[in-house]
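Kindly inspect this today.
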Amino acid sequence: MECLLTFSNTHQVMKAEDVLNKQNIFTKPMPLPRDLGDFCGISLRIDRGQIEQGCEILRCNDVNLDGIYDIIQKNNKKEYVPW
């Protein structure tokens, strides 16, 4: 299962991706789903098993995380459930 990390701006997304990748926590950038808002158009997908470690790394590196969502597939549609 994967989670989606959202941020308030593109700078935070880029910083998060760089910091996490350096710690071998690999992310996949993707457009922010419309139903989650319109603040920053980019979000990061991360493996659910790495979310706690990833959040701690972001916190220690002053990366401002806006939200965390579980990505759930239902009826050929993705749902984003707050974590």
Notes: The mean pLDDT is 94.
